[in-house]
Specification:
Layout lengths: L4 E3 L10 H4 L7 E5 L2 H5 L5 H20 L3 E5 L10 H12 L3 E5 L4 H9 L3 E5 L8 H8 L7 H12 L3 E2 L2 E2 L30 H13 L16 H15 L3 H4 L16 H6 L4 H13 L5 H25 L27 H13 L4 H15 L3 H11 L5 H12 L16 H7 L20 H12 L1 H4 L6 H9 L2 H19 L5
Parallel strand pairs: 1-2, 1-4, 2-3, 4-5
Antiparallel strand pairs: 6-7
Helix pairs in contact: 3-8, 7-13, 9-12, 12-13, 13-17, 14-15, 15-19, 16-17, 19-22
The structure holds flavin-adenine dinucleotide (FAD) and iron/sulfur cluster (SF4).
The site of iron/sulfur cluster (SF4) has 15 residues, from helix 14, helix 18 and helix 19.
Amino acid sequence: MVSRLVLILGDQLSPDMACLRDADRARDTVVMAEVRSEATYAPHHPKKIALIFSAMRHFAEELRGDGWTVAYTRYDDPENAGSIPGELLRRADETGATEVIATEPGEWRLIEAMRDCPLEVKLLPDDRFVCSRKDFEAWAEGRKELRMEWFYREMRRRTGYLMKGDDPAGGKWNYDKLNRKPAARDLLRSAPMSFTPDDITEEVLALVQREFPDNFGSLRPFDFAVTRGDARRALSHFVRRLLPEFGPYQDAMLTGEPYLNHALISPYLNVGLLSPQEVCDAVQAAWEAGEVPIQSAEGFIRQIIGWREFVRGVYFLEGPDYPHRNALNHQRKLPPLYWGAETRMACLREVVAQTRDNAYAHHIQRLMVTGNFALIAGIDPAEVHEWYLSVYADAFEWVEAPNTVGMSQFADGGVVGSKPYASSANYIDRMSDYCTGCDYFAEKKTGKGACPFNLLYWHFLNRHRDRFEKNHRMGAIYASWDRMDEARRETILEEADDFLTRMSRGEAV
Ligand SMILES: Cc1cc2nc3c(=O)[nH]c(=O)nc-3n(C[C@H](O)[C@H](O)[C@H](O)COP(=O)(O)OP(=O)(O)OC[C@H]3O[C@@H](n4cnc5c(N)ncnc54)[C@H](O)[C@@H]3O)c2cc1C
Ligand code: SF4
């Protein structure tokens, strides 16, 4: 019988992938390849490339140990064809295979490449999610608006997580109101688990150093888990040590403390080292054992079976043009401060520096600092999208684009969120200690030292009045703008324009 090729991509490192279940280890050849097209479609953070390549190499070893024949191509292999279809063709030539079994890739770009591949490709649905693409389509069918909260409740009912019969455990679906505390420094707070690179990872780090010397981001220290075993250890550590306080502090930000109570498991989930079900099972078990309060368990499970599944559903439902949308017609270029150039804004400086060092920022930093600034400054969402896709270790288009283009930039016109996440300095000042170390003053609305977030917030609302004025959640904001005297409104808009002009000229604002 002729061998078939079984394709495993860099974010498909799960032992129960649909394509492996469909294949025969005695007959078929698993194909894995570190290719140029994937490593360079965006200028990825060096830590992200190293994480994926090292996790791939470890996974290939596990598959071999499990009896599979694996044809693995390293990045610097002189025979490397440079793309996934190219590698499949090369391996087909070698083995005589004409058929490929693959699990559907997580982005349109690769789905299209697989469809165009001149081999017979059987694409199986990726069933590593709580909600399949088909089920999401059925849920979305006929709804005027897609709202995460309704979807989330449906997923709670379906999975039974934190449920008492048909009702939510504790009596409420959502404990967000208890979960908005600013954090204080706590020397006893655990850090996320870190892992020392083994020989395989060291070899990958040397390769990434050599091949991607100019990509934005620090390669070392590199302490990500790169195997399923270590990812599971990181999960247990989080559940035991950090989850109990996750809820109250999930929106907080502190200078020099990039992780606080966050899990740091998104890269492991997204490459396939962890499954959403095992993560939620661990949280549910800790809650049942009385080790974790309901608001932390609920806050966390909502992120996994709510937001994570919802954004995937939206990405596939909306189609390949989704990442290119620009509903607010924002055209300004992304300023160099996003790539580490000097800025006087302490919040942006801190979040960009953490991003550079760790390939990580937590949700509120991404949404309310870098995202919020790009939104109110009117930055082209395509450039914002490319930045987020590049700089975070967990960034894959199916999850990054709805968060960036949708939730954060409102460039999808309101598919993901019902109102834009635009805010003045108030929010950052309340939820962080960034403003104390800043050249600007959070409480100053105009004049020398006025925080740019205060100026740009009104500039944004004023620019888009036609679109947002009728939004029932924003009417009160426009009413307070209208109550300001006209001279003050003019000053705000002039100072905002001046700021934007100086930023676009390349000044260190
Ligand atoms: C502009 C922007 C871009 C983002 N890009 C990505 C991305 O490329 N990849 C990515 O995985 N997440 C992305 N997120 C969502 C979120 O910021 C990260 O999942 C989270 O910061 C990961 O860190 P953590 O594991 O410590 O998460 P925790 O705060 O501990 O949350 C737990 C888990 O919930 C999931 N989760 C939480 N929020 C979301 C969300 N909004 N969408 C999807 N999953 C969520 C993640 O798997 C995460 O690991 C983005 C958010 C914003 C605002
Ligand atoms: S004052 Fe403004 S720019 Fe400075 S840290 Fe606070 S929000 Fe950021």
